[in-house]
Fold Amidohydrolase family protein.
Amino acid sequence: MPTAHLPTTPPSPEPLILLGAALIDGTGAAPVEDSEIEISDGRIVYAGPRRGGTPTRSDVRTVDLSGSTILPGFIDAHVHLGLSIEDQQADAARFDSERTLRTALNARRTLLAGVTTARDLGGIDRGIRDAIVAGLIHGPRLHLAVSALSPTGGHTDFTLPNGRAVPMPMPVHPIIDTDDDVRRTVRLLIRGGADVIKICTTGGVSSPSDTPDDLGVPEEHVRLIVSETAKRAGQPVAAHAQGAEGIKAAIRGGVRSVEHGYGIDDEGIDLMLENGTFLVPTLSSALRVPDPDRVPAYLYEKKVKWSAIARERIAAAFAAGVRVALGTDAGVCPHGENLREPVHAVELGLSPMQAIVAGTKNAAELLRLDDDLGTLEAGKLADLIVCDFDPLTDITPLARPDNVRAVIQGGTVVKDTAARFGPEPHRPRLAE
Ligand SMILES: [Zn+2]
């Protein structure tokens, strides 16, 4: 059985015991009110009710987190760390070196918002992923699509009607029209380190010459891509799909996730349930109408229309019980406010617990990283966040990154605004 690449991060050398917090472990089980978590070599040794007695190891740092809540580090299944859509014009004039540094800043902001793993669905190469693994920069563990694919004139063809191209960095040329284009492009992406293949089976809101109702990559090409990845590591296929027909083409072609899904109809919902397809509804972007002065008029107009559609149809998909994994489309919305997504998911009908599970356990399953991530259980990587409120009573404070008081990734404390974890080696540090 092919497995997914697990991006590791440098683990802390010092073991840690967290005592007294309410523990929401990401499995959907009721919280453990007075919990204990033991972490060693970057992994969880124990997570459950406080064990009592004296610790078996004297070298363990014990941190009292009474009054706080611990949750798994969130997984944002849809980001574009190299993109800031309201800054596109300025970005076109930047040198590559500055663009890379800005991407690193976006990665750091995403991590500090409480996202310890993310899936970048187009716009960056594996250098960013590997720099995080090496401890050169702070950021979420990353899975990458490298580029997002569409036919000529489709969602990732940023050529204007006059033939001039709007600069839209995609490390591998993203246009696929023929069977040969499809095979060669998928091979190039996998050679370049793609963990997931991102395709667009519909047009979109942010592209100049198509709409979400237009069809993009056809069902037969979706099938061809799925059969190509099956010969490799079984990289999942994620489909940008907004209008009802393109959503159904993606599901019938065998994608693992429908990204956006704004206009999904009842037949599409049934197909998702039958096939176990994940929905990544990107509500942070769907429900956010951008500043009309900072984006093109076509984008603003389409956004107003499709926000209303998404509000109604995503709520219907939630009510029907489709598998949901959270993703923001950050880059289209601002970076570093990723935990606004579970708040929006609750607005459209998920319970706070369902929204948390969608952003942790379910997203780990989507990425095929659930052996190591997504829940706080013995044996898993110690990726977790600490907050000072009960998100099951009111989830809205999660939307503000300041309310995420601590972030631990692979047992290393990378954020500690309440200064509970003491000095080095549990302070944020980068490779030397
Ligand atoms: Zn996207």
